[in-house]
Amino acid sequence: MSEVLQGHARVSADAAGRGLAVEIFARPAANSLAEAASLMGVTPGDIVKSLVVKRSDNTFLFALVPGGRSISWPKLRHAVGVNKLQMPPADIALAATGYERGTITPLGSTTAWPVFVDESVVGRRVAMGAGEHGYSMFVEADALIAAFGATVADISVPE
User: Fold this and answer.
1) Under a CB-based contact definition with an 8 Å cutoff, are residues 27 and 127 in contact?
2) Cα(65)–Cα(117) distance, integer angstroms
3) Residue 99 CB neighbours (<10 A)
4) What angle do CA 118, 39, 94 make, to 5 degrees?
5) Most C-beta atoms within 10 A of its C-beta, which of 7, 8, 120, 157?
6) Do the beta carbons of residue 22 and residue 148 sit within 8 Å?
């Protein structure tokens, strides 16, 4: 039986399997989006949050939204084609993805849920969580979108 990969090793293995180039790096903890962006040498909008969202049928999806923006529930419901979505409690998000909040990414998720990406990240190099506290990754958003066959739509509003 093979060893089960955890954290950023799981992210790296999934990226490699998809032919997706990612740069995973250790980073210090940050107390705010602005501080995190400063530590990584990017703008807050270059940091993409991977949010796990629960559908009414108890399935999930990933919503990728840039820093400084939040999910627009009406827009996301329209893009998904459902009338009810919600953020699950932290323990449910962990069970759905294998990742704790703050580390969630579609890469290496224990279940391959559909991915919805806010249109504002298209064409950008972005920073994202890398499956483990203390690590982030850089990835080309367009390559990530292609690797997952993600749906790109206007799904966010300014915070």
Assistant:
1) no
2) 7
3) 26
4) 55
5) 8
6) no
Burial of 88 (0-12, 13-18, 19+ CB in 10 A): middle
DSSP character string of the chain:
-PPPP-HHHHHHHHHHHTT--EEEEE----SSHHHHHHHHTS-GGGEEEEEEEEETTS-EEEEEEETTEEE-HHHHHHHHT-S-EEPPPHHHHHHHHS--TTT--STT-SS---EEEEGGGTT-EEEEE-SSTTEEEEEEHHHHHHHHTPEEE--EEE-
**CA-to-CA distance for 80 and 110, rounded, in angstroms?**
21
Partner residues linked to 125 by β-bridges: 140
What pLDDT score was predicted for residue 5? 82
Computed on alpha carbons and rounded to an integer, the radius of gyration of the chain in Å comes to 15
- Residue 15's alpha-carbon distances to 78, 133, 137, in angstroms, are 29, 18, 11
Joined together, the tokens standing for residue 14 give 């999934």
Question: Using one digit for the tens of pLDDT, what is the confidence trace for 112-125?
Answer: 999 999 999 999 99
CA 154-156-159 angle, 5° bins: 155
76 has pLDDT over 70: yes
The confidence score (pLDDT) of residue 158 equals 97
